[in-house]
């Protein structure tokens, strides 16, 4: 792989790391980037690359939020707890000893909420993944989705002005609220919508604070992106060349580093600002996508 191809991979990793977490649609940006910058790879591998580099982005969430997500620890049980467990049947003692000594129950509850929120996507969106990719992955759909959700961000923020969020911490997030946010995540199967954009809008509408909506969006990405990457790799097969492996690794590493910076920026930004700026950005980008591709078609 020559230096030019390497620089292309690095640039794509930067775009992925920024746009995956900011609610501005990574797909919309990738379509624009792909118009001007082509990797010297097959289309099949490029499809895999664009999904698998998301693993780098999601690893940034795992690293930044490790203490909130890792559900195991080691602690010594109080004597009263040991005595209470000793009165249980043998099989129950084994389970209770493990749970009490090694499991952080609050974090397990958070993971159960994440699983519940992922169910709508698994049940509704996954079976239509190939159909959606074939029929909706074009600049018209992406541009319209960018504009529509940009308008929605502005409308939702205006509606939300003056409302006090009912849920201000992940511990307060109910299973019902998690499920409703998961239903909004289904909308993100339409290219240009933005997964983070859909779930953040959903979180705000169902009464969470911007911080909770953003953090829960990050956590939802872990099973969704790991699952999507695994499916893409299984479809492609594991017959990667040495160059293709290098491309994947470089893209993931760059996306990882940039994602850490993007997540920190977003969490700092929303403490003082709303999401309207992202809404206006999406509207402008969507209009540019339409103007460029329509103009290109007319001039062809």
Automatic annotation (TrEMBL):
The record lists the membrane-crossing segments as 48-66, 108-126, 138-156, 177-193, 213-233, 245-267, 279-299
Highest taxon above the source species: Bacteria
- Respond yes or no to whether keyword ATP-binding is given for this record: no
For this protein, the Enzyme Commission number is 3.6.1.27
Q: Which UniProt keywords apply?
A: Antibiotic resistance, Cell membrane, Cell shape, Cell wall biogenesis/degradation, Hydrolase, Membrane, Peptidoglycan synthesis, Transmembrane, Transmembrane helix
Function text: Catalyzes the dephosphorylation of undecaprenyl diphosphate (UPP). Confers resistance to bacitracin.
What PANTHER family does this protein map onto?
UNDECAPRENYL-DIPHOSPHATASE
Q: What is this protein called?
A: Undecaprenyl-diphosphatase
Q: Which organism's genome codes for this protein?
A: Blautia faecis
């Amino acid at each position: 792989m020559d230096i030019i191809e390497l620089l292309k991979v690095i640039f794509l990793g930067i775009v992925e790391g920024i746009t995956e977490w900011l609610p501005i649609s990574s797909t919309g940006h990738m379509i624009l980037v792909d118009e001007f910058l082509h990797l010297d790879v097959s289309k099949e591998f490029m499809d895999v690359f664009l999904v698998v580099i998301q693993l780098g982005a999601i690893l940034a969430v795992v690293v930044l939020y490790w203490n909130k997500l890792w559900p195991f620890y080691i602690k010594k049980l109080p004597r009263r707890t040991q005595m209470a467990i000793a009165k249980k049947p043998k099989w129950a003692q084994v389970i209770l000893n493990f749970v009490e000594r090694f499991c952080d129950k609050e974090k397990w509850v958070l993971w159960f909420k994440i699983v519940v929120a992922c169910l709508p996507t698994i049940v509704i969106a996954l079976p239509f993944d190939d159909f959606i990719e074939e029929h909706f992955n074009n600049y018209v759909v992406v541009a319209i989705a960018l504009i529509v959700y940009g308008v929605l961000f502005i409308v939702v923020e205006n509606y939300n002005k003056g409302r006090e969020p009912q849920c201000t911490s992940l511990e307060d997030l109910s299973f019902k609220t998690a499920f409703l946010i998961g239903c909004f995540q289904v909308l993100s199967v339409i290219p240009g919508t933005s997964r983070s954009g859909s779930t953040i809008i959903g979180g705000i509408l169902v009464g969470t604070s911007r911080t909770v909506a953003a953090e829960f969006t990050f956590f939802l990405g872990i099973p969704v992106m790991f699952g999507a990457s695994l499916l893409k790799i299984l479809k492609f097969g594991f017959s990667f060349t040495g160059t293709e492996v290098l491309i994947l690794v470089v893209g993931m590493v760059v996306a990882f580093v940039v994602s850490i910076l993007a997540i920190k920026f977003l969490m700092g930004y929303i403490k003082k600002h709303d999401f309207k700026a992202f809404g206006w950005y999406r509207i402008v980008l969507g209009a540019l996508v339409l103007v460029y591709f329509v103009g290109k078609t007319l001039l062809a």
